[in-house]
Design brief:
The complex is a heterodimer of chains A (307) and B (164). By secondary structure, chain A is of the alpha/beta class. Chain A contains ten helices and ten strands. Chain A is globular. Chain B has one domain: Alpha-Beta Plaits. Chains A and B meet through helix 1 and helix 7 of A and helix 2, strand 5 and helix 3 of B. Chain A: InterPro entries: Pol/histidinol_Pase-like, RNase_P_p30.
Chain lengths: 307, 164
């Protein structure tokens, strides 16, 4: 599975020309064998507009595939917030409805203090740095280590390097220092391609990664495994409480799972439970005793609710 | 005596003006005759890109061993040989190419192999997929012209197997 988590979304999506240009880019990504794409919307300043990203309906381009099978690409939406003022509250939390309408949240710090803040505390999935131009600060071990510990990923966009030679120099230099500081961990490589001709195939990017100071395995992880980790990080951020507890309605349970809420014994035929929520615990180790205990717990709480 | 080991790169050139013809039927491409590229054009484009991106050192490293063995202007795929120690320089330079002669394009590597045999097999597979794709598109357009697919397969196979 290859991912491209940064495809700039057109600023005026209603224009037919921009729409076909976006379609071109997505078609080329499919041809190159990418399976996930994230449309990026960059915001400078206040977050007041609603999510402008409209995904293409059931994207497949069957006429183009040689064997006639449908090739599908998963589409995500992403917001990049450019943070210029540390004192301003940007509302970057999953409680914000504008933020939670996007699948992935990225932050782009513009000075060192904000960089530390983004790495250490802000609830984001990606730290995006503008690597095509000279960075206004050094990337230091301290905040970067903090970000790696929290599972936040750093982004390298390769399209500026293809666009012109000055930003190519900057990008290689910035990327090498990022790889040195992170020791190759927690990096993703994305395109940020404005036009279709700025995209490259996944294995060409792996080779580009070796130029930036990674080895081949690390570089491949940057466009596959690490990107998946970003998507999973985003899902746990959005859909769970403190990445531990998730909620699902009782009606989503299958008939053979109804024992979890104790409805197969006492409440057969009753439909009182519909619509109510049950708590599902995300556990790493499965301990039988604990499971029984939990079952009892749930039963008791349900009884209490009934009475 | 240590043997000089090579890498063989099978690459595809995708042109901006032709790659999206199939999906957007409304904006038909201009019927002007497009300039076909030769092996020589591709060779000089790659060498220029190495000069720009890796400098004199890069050109010095690859100059002895690089050679573009084959380039087909019909399917836009080619094969090149480079010594094993320096293939990443050439590959990197190919990634940075945005234009060959006057045409905007990008180069994608389809296969990297240690022997030419594997590259040839991969190229044949690729050609077959392309021919099937073209036929499907023709069917969708409603072209009634009947082309013998097997003959085309045989042709491409013979051409690619002739690379030495």
């Amino acid at each position: 599975m290859f991912y491209d988590l940064n495809l700039p979304y057109p600023t005026q999506p209603n224009l037919a020309q921009q729409q076909t240009e976006l379609r071109k880019r997505v078609d080329l990504l499919i041809k190159f064998g990418y399976q996930v794409v994230a449309y990026n919307h960059t915001v400078t300043g206040k977050l007041d507009k609603a999510n402008p990203i409209h995904k293409f309906e059931t994207y497949n381009n069957s006429p183009d595939s040689p064997s006639g099978q449908q090739q599908k690409i998963e589409q995500l939406s992403r917001i990049t917030v450019v943070i210029e003022d540390a004192s301003q509250n940007y509302g970057l939390s999953s409680a914000n409805s504008i933020i939670s309408s996007y699948d992935i949240v990225a932050a782009q710090p513009t000075n060192e203090k904000i960089f530390q803040n983004v790495c250490g505390t802000l609830e984001v999935d990606i730290v995006s740095l503008e690597m095509g131009s000279r960075l206004p600060f050094y990337i230091k071990h301290g905040p970067v280590g903090l970000a790696i510990e929290r599972g936040v990923y750093f982004e390298i966009c390769y399209a500026p390097a293809i666009r012109d030679s000055a930003s190519r120099r900057q990008l290689i230099s910035n990327a090498q220092s990022l790889v040195r500081v992170t020791r190759g961990k927690n990096i993703i490589i994305t395109s940020e391609a404005q036009r279709a001709m700025e995209l490259r195939g996944p294995y060409d990017i792996v080779n580009l990664g070796t130029i930036m100071g990674m080895n081949q395995a690390m570089a491949k992880d940057c466009i596959s495994t690490n990107c998946r980790a970003v998507v999973m990080h985003a899902i746990t951020r959005r859909n769970t409480h403190r990445a531990v507890v998730s909620f699902e309605p009782v009606s989503s349970l299958k008939p053979n799972e109804l024992w979890k809420v104790g409805s197969d014994k006492k409440n057969t035929g009753k439909t009182d439970f519909k619509g109510k929520s049950t708590v599902k615990r995300v556990r790493l180790s499965k301990d039988d005793e604990e499971e029984e205990e939990e079952e009892n717990e749930v039963e008791i709480s349900q009884d209490m609710e009934l009475s | 005596m240590v043997r000089l080991k090579n890498r063989w790169l099978l690459f595809e050139v995708i042109f901006e003006d032709t790659f999206h013809v199939s999906s957007s039927s409304s904006s038909s491409p201009p019927s002007q005759k497009l300039e076909a590229l030769s092996t020589r054009d591709v060779y000089s484009a790659i060498k220029n890109s190495v000069q720009i991106n890796f400098g004199d050192y890069g050109v010095g490293c690859i100059a002895a061993s690089i050679s573009v063995k084959y380039f087909s202007p019909f399917t836009n795929i080619g094969v090149l040989r480079i010594s094993r120690d320096h293939y990443h320089i050439v590959w990197g330079a190919m990634t940075f190419i945005t234009q060959i002669k006057t045409r905007k394009c990008l180069i994608r590597v389809l296969h990297l192999g240690g022997t030419i045999k594997q590259c040839q097999l991969s190229a044949i597979n690729y050609d077959r997929d392309q021919i099937l794709l073209l036929r499907r598109q023709a069917e969708l357009r409603g072209d009634t012209e009947i082309v013998d697919i097997n003959e085309l397969f045989e042709q491409s196979k013979n051409q690619i197997m002739a690379i030495e």
